[in-house]
Design a protein that fits this description.
The protein is an alpha/beta fold. The protein has ten helices and 13 strands. It has a five-stranded mixed sheet, sandwiched between helices. Strands 8-13-12-11 form a four-stranded mixed sheet, with helices on both faces. It has a two-stranded antiparallel sheet with strand order 2-3. The structure holds oxa(dethia)-CoA.
Length: 323
């Protein structure tokens, strides 16, 4: 059978780093509170001229270079973002143009922090269904532009950045020893809308709006939802926590990551953590973490890698793949 095999990865971060110490000058907070409650020590913030499309383009170019490909080799671009450059056209089409690519198709996916998981699942379906052979999947965000910088309960949590991967359809045996995406599990439940949302939009206020979150409420649901989609991935593939080489979770909060890994029986040394350096970059957090762990040699060919995310909507999901 055809599997979507990951053959390139890349990332981009704005040059400007905002430390917790600097946050103390913006709102009534402390480095100690932020580190204890979230594990975050710093985040990157987009500067003038840096946008979701420009960061996404940079990450895409790095992923293509690693894959030994050019934009001419790509059939479809899928961009996961909740912070598009414009309401329309899609950021994916913007990036397609920046890459000098004028063939194929490009579109955005909006599933907030689970956006990269949704985009990977969609790319997998396109490849297995024969609609595309090579898909560029990008997660890119500039959440700094939708934050209320006077609200200490949210503004300390998020950061900007982008990550990308190239997926290519390759013939595999059809077992859990295959390379590529083995399963993707997606869930959503709009009843949780008010716990994490943006209070504006083109069809309501006609403005962009700002992020609002009842953090404690989100926290209460996070671990259960994450473990649900991971157990579903194990059941779908006949694998167990013992088979996992790397858990690469969405990076929202160190405590959520630790509690989820513990509940699943995945030891801390197999968990990739970047939340300390990047904060929560929403749809960009997983590809940024993948880039970090693959570039430094932790993730190797043949490793079984488990991705998971949960966020606004609520949406949540997992992807199990062999590198
Ligand atoms: O990626 C999308 C999904 N999002 C998430 O996964 C976020 C999930 N939620 C969380 O990560 C956590 O709930 C937070 C990090 C947002 C908050 O941590 P918490 O342990 O749930 O704290 P809390 O909301 O219960 O607040 C505890 C106290 C409150 O003061 P009182 O009421 O106890 O006096 C807050 O006002 O901490 C206060 N507080 C702060 N203090 C200093 C809230 N934000 C801050 C702050 N600095 N930045």
């Amino acid at each position: 059978m055809i599997r979507a095999v990951l053959c390139g990865y890349g990332a981009a971060l704005p040059a400007r780093i905002l430390t917790n110490k600097e946050m103390e000058g913006l709102v009534d907070t402390s480095d100690e509170w932020i580190v204890q409650r979230t594990g975050i020590r710093q985040r990157h913030i987009a500067g003038d001229g840096e946008t979701s499309a420009s960061l996404g383009e940079q990450a895409a170019r790095a992923a293509l270079a690693r894959a030994g490909m050019t934009p001419a080799d790509i059939d479809v671009i899928i961009v996961a973002t909740s912070t598009p450059d414009n309401t329309f056209p899609a950021t994916a089409v913007n990036i397609q143009n920046r890459l000098g690519m004028h063939h194929g198709a490009a579109f955005d996916m909006q599933a907030v922090c689970s956006g990269f998981i949704y985009a990977m699942a969609t790319a997998d379906a396109y490849i297995r269904g024969g609609l595309a052979r090579r898909v560029l999947v990008i997660g890119t965000e500039t959440f700094s532009r939708i934050l209320d910088w006077t609200d200490r309960t949210t503004c300390v949590l998020f950061g900007d950045g982008a990550g990308a991967v190239v997926l290519e359809g390759r013939e595999q045996a059809g077992t859990s020893a295959d390379r590529g995406i083995l399963t993707a599990q997606l869930r959503s439940d709009g009843a949780h809308r008010d716990k994490l949302f943006v209070d504006g939009g083109p069809s309501t206020t006609g403005t962009v709006g700002q992020l609002r979150m009842e953090g404690r409420e989100v926290f209460k649901h996070a671990v259960g939802m994450i473990t649900d989609v991971i157990e579903a991935a194990f059941a779908a593939t006949g694998t167990t926590a013992d088979d996992i080489d790397w858990l690469v979770p969405h990076q929202a909060n160190r405590r959520i990551i630790d509690a989820s890994a513990k509940k699943l029986g995945i030891p801390p040394e197999k968990v990739v953590v970047t939340v300390d350096l990047h904060g929560n970059t929403s749809a960009a957090s997983i590809p940024l973490a993948l880039d970090a762990a693959a570039s430094d040699g932790r993730i190797k060919d043949g490793d079984l890698v488990l991705l998971e995310a949960m966020g606004g909507g609520f949406t949540w999901g997992s992807v199990l793949l062999r590198w």
